[in-house]
C-alpha cells in the first residue's frame, strides 16, 4: 500500500519531444526532488532525448547525478568562496555571479550569470569592465540570464535580453553562448535571428517535465476504513466526529509532502477571497486534503501523520474499501512518492 505516481509514459515523452523540438539546444533542468520524478529518472530521460547538458541545482546534486548522466552538468547555484568543496568531474560547469567568484575558479568551466530584473544574483553592468582580466584564467562557457515569470509592468523579456547582449558586446566580452530561462519559443527565435553569431540555450525544467498535467497522477492507497457516528472521538487529539461517516486512512503523509504547500502569489479579488476563506476554516480545524473520493476533494479528519492521512468521508458518500486508490492533487516539486508506475 503506497502513495504512487502514475505516469502515462508515452504521453509524457510526446510532450517532452514537443518542448525539445521548440527549443533547439535545450538544457533540461533536474533540481530539487527532480520535479517529483527523481534525479535518476530525469537523467535517464535526458540521455534518451539526446541532450548533451543537464542543469542541476547544487554541487551536491551534481555529485549524485554524475553517475547517471554522462554529458556536461551545469550547476545553477552560483559559486561562493568558502563553500564546502565537493569532488566533481571536469564535465561539471559552475555558475558564477560575481567577479570575485570568477577569480576564485582558476581553470574551471564557468557560466557567468548577469543580474536580471529578478534581482536574485548576477554580475552588474558596472562589473563588466572587471571581467576581462578575470575570464583569462577560466574556461568561459557563456553568459546567462534568469528571467522573471511574470511581467506586471508590461516590460518585454526579449528587450531585457537584448539590453544585456548590447552591454556585453560594448564591454567586448565573448558572446558565443547565452543561457536563458523563462522565454517562449517565439521569443527565443527572435533573439536567435537578431544575434546569429550567438547560440541561445534555454534552461527548462517545469515546462519540460510538468507541462502536460494529464500525463501524471498521484494516488494514495486506502489502508483502513472505520465507521464513526456523530460525537465519536478519534485520532491523536481525540476530536469529535461532526457527523456520521467513515474515517479513511490513506497512504501519504508529511514525509511524502502531503499537507505541505509552497506560498502562492495571489492576483485579483477572487483568489484572495478564497485564501481568506481557507485560512478561516483552518482556525476551526477544517483543512481540505489533496485526496479525491467520489468526485470531491475530501477534508482531513485531523492533520496528516508522517506516512498516512486520515480523511473524513460523510455517510452520504459511497464507502471506500481497503485497497481502493484515491487520486491526490499534489505539487510535484514538494512530493516524494513510494513508487513510480509507468503505464
How would you portray this structure in words?
- It is a single chain.
- With 343 residues, this protein is of the alpha/beta class.
- Helices cover 25% and strands 27% of the residues.
- It is built from nine helices and 18 strands.
- The protein has helices at residues 9-22, 39-49, 59-65, 99-103, 128-134, 157-170, 185-194, 206-210, 269-282, and strands spanning 3-7, 27-28, 53-56, 72-75, 92-96, 109-113, 139-146, 177-181, 199-204, 216-228, 233-234, 239-240, 245-251, 288-293, 296-300, 308-314, 325-328, 339-342.
- The strands form three sheets. The protein has an eight-stranded parallel beta sheet. A six-stranded antiparallel barrel has the order 10-13-16-15-14-17. A two-stranded antiparallel ribbon has the order 11-12.
- Strand 5 (92-96), helix 4 and strand 6 form a beta-alpha-beta unit.
- Helix 6 runs parallel beside helix 7 (185-194).
- 35% of the residues are buried.
- Mean pLDDT is 93; it is low at 271-284.
